[in-house]
Structures are given as structure tokens and as C-alpha cells.
Amino acid sequence: MLYNKEIYSFARQCENFNRRNTVVFRGLKFSYNAANGQIKKLYNKIGNILKNGLTLEGINKKFGETETLKHIWLKAKAGKFLTLLGPSGCGKTTLLRIIAGLEIPDIGKVILGNQDITMMPAEKREINIVFQNYALFPHLNIFENIAFGLKARKFPKAIIKKRVEKKLEVLALQGFENRRPHQLSGGQKQRVALARALVNEPEVLLLDEPMSALDARLRAKVQVELRRLQQKLQKTFILVTHDQDEALVVSDHIAVMKEGRIIQTGAASEVYDNPKTEFVAEFLGAANLIKGEASGEGIKTEIGFLKLKKMPAWINGTVAIRPEWIKIRETMPSINGIKGKVAEIIYRGSEFDIRLQPCNLRVKTSAYRNFKQGDEIFIELAPEELAILDE
């Protein structure tokens, strides 16, 4: 009988595979006839299941009288990087544990591909998790740490060796095989934890604030490495973090959480450029919030009339503008121009953060601009840069 090498490699990851023209994948039995070219159809059929990604349907969770998660509906697209972003106590880690199978929701479903895995034990899910403290075994060397899951599942030694060596290469850990965890740096430990999770070839990789213990410089480097790794592997990554910069660097999509609810989701650039609430505007980056009353083609505010690109649905409400979107001009702009006095300057190396009075606006500008406290400057709040908030 002829076998397609690609489908054999793919099907080897399934719950059961034999050479009798049948494969069971996520509880679904597929039959095929290798002689008449059905192997390719089988591969496409199973591949279409994987493309469905991970879906959360109406997840609720209480601990005692505390409602930790409230009506969570969310989809993580297959092969994309999703970040759950929010402050401490918002429920993001609990949600991650429900996806992993370490907690069971009171209400709702977890769907992977087209299968309900809500009640499936964690060890049977095609999901792996990297914990905040990495959870490496101190008595095992790096090779043994990475191979641990495969050995527990009784994979053949040849396959274990091949998979571990491949992950050592992908994560730049070659030459570290015989070292113990205490002999590694924080960044190296993180890569070992990633390798140990990825060697099991999960469909979804969960990351519980894995960079929080790293210093600022190393954290910035690892963020970029993590994003490149996800793009290379084309696996679904779900990260939990409270670090806004980290979320923007690594994510295809961001879900912002507050008090057990998801309050905005979308592409990273969409959520940053078009926040829907004051919380999202201020939590994801810095924002100037300006309250006003709708009038004519814009809003009347304490700092003057501001023209908008489109009119809001509300009569009284708030618009937001990022400090870096405010333009400094040589003369007073004819539209949305404001004159202010420099009240405070914060030097950040390549740029200045400037606070203006009496309008109390924050402006970000390049460090080559020579401003000093007390200077009067003209600024422009362009209509297309003003985000209309829903609340």
C-alpha cells in the first residue's frame, strides 16, 4: 500500500493511527482508500477542522460568591497570536486555565476545531501551557526537561531524540542539552519551557505571563523572538499579560479584559487606534481624554471647538487622542488648533513627553525638538486622529 509521507506525519499526531485505512481524530473516525487518491482528501478534511481554531462560548466562572468570568465569547483564529490583556484580578489567568483544562467553567463551552473539549481532561487536549515560573525540573538536564512529555506518553526513543533536537535548533538551545536549569539565564529558561511545550506539537500554546520575570532589555528581545517563533510555526498562541507594550509587539489580535468581562477585541492596531472605552484608551498605551458636547460638525470642549471626522452617536461624551498623534506646528492651525504652555518635560532618550497647560494635554515629540519649560507652542488635534469613545 502506498502512503503519503505528509499525511502519515500529520496523522501520527492524532489519537490513533493505523495502516488499515482508518484514522481517529478528536473522536471522529475517517476512512480512506490509498489506492484511489483519498489520502489527500483526508488530509484536507482534517486540515479544515484545525482551521476552525479555538472558540469560547458563554464562559462563566464563580469562586464562592465572586464572579470571576462573566459571559465570555471569544474566538482565537488558527495559526494566529491572541493576547488576553488586562489588569491583575480581571480573570485572564482563570480563562487561560479553563482553556488548558485546569479549571472547568460553571457555564459555557470550549471548542477546539469542531469538538467540544469543555470536560476533556487537560492531558488529552491538544493544548500545552508555559507557566509564569517556567516550572522546569531542577533534577533533569535540558534535553530531559524538553523530552519529559514525550517520554510520559511513551513515544519511541528515536522520535523523542528527533523532536527534541529539532526544537533545540529552532529555539537556539543547541549545546545546552546537558546543562541543568540553574545553569541557564532567564531568557534561556524561557526558551526551554517553550521547547518543552512545543515538542508535543500542540494545536494551541498557552503562555501565562512568561516574560514577567525578565529584565526590561531581555523582555523586549524575547518578545520579538516569541513573535518570530509563532509566525514560523504557524501555531495558535494565546498569551496572558498586563503589559500593554508586550501585547502590541507580539499580537495579531488583542482581547482587553476588565472585571471578568471582555470589553473590546480586534486586531492589535485596531484596538490601539480605535479604543471604544476610556479604560481601553488609557490601559492600552497613553491617551488624552477630552469630554465634550456634540455640536455642528464636532464637539464643544473646555479647550475649544474640535471638528470630528464623523459625528458621535451621543450628545455628551468623550473623544481620545494619543500623545504621539498630536502635531506641533509653527503657527496656529486653522482646524483644531490650540495654544499651550509647556508645564512639564520628561526626557525618554529618543523622545520627550510634554505636558501643556492650561489644556492639560500630553504630547510626545522627538528629542531633537528643543523645548523648555514655559515655552508657548501651537498644536493640532487633527479630526482623523480623534477617536470617538462609546461611553
Task: Summarize the structure in words.
This protein has 391 residues and is an alpha+beta fold. The protein folds into 3 domains: 46 residues, no CATH class; 220 residues, 3-Layer(aba) Sandwich (Rossmann fold), CATH 3.40.50; 103 residues, Nucleic acid-binding proteins (OB fold (Dihydrolipoamide Acetyltransferase, E2P), Beta Barrel), CATH 2.40.50.140. Helix content is 27%, strand content 33%. The chain contains 10 helices and 23 strands. The strands form 5 sheets. It has a 6-stranded mixed β-sheet with strand order 9-10-11-6-12-13, with helices on both faces. Strands 16-15-14-17-23 form a 5-stranded antiparallel β-sheet. Strands 18-22-19-20-21 form a 5-stranded antiparallel β-sheet, with no helix packed on it. Helix 4 packs across helix 5 and helix 4 packs parallel to helix 6. The chain is globular, with a radius of gyration of 26 Å. The termini are far apart.
Briefly characterize the structure.
With 391 residues, this protein is α+β, with helices and mostly antiparallel strands.
Describe how the helices and strands are arranged.
Blueprint: H1 5-11, E1 16-17, E2 22-25, E3 28-31, H2 38-50, E4 54-63, E5 66-76, E6 81-85, H3 92-100, E7 107-112, E8 115-116, E9 127-130, H4 142-152, H5 157-170, H6 186-198, E10 204-208, H7 216-233, E11 236-241, H8 244-250, E12 253-258, E13 261-267, H9 268-273, H10 278-283, E14 288-295, E15 298-301, E16 304-307, E17 316-321, E18 327-329, E19 337-347, E20 351-357, E21 361-366, E22 376-380, E23 387-388
Parallel strand pairs: 6-11, 6-12, 9-10, 10-11
Antiparallel strand pairs: 1-2, 2-3, 4-5, 4-7, 7-8, 12-13, 14-15, 14-17, 15-16, 17-23, 18-22, 19-20, 19-22, 20-21
Helix pairs in contact: 4-5, 4-6
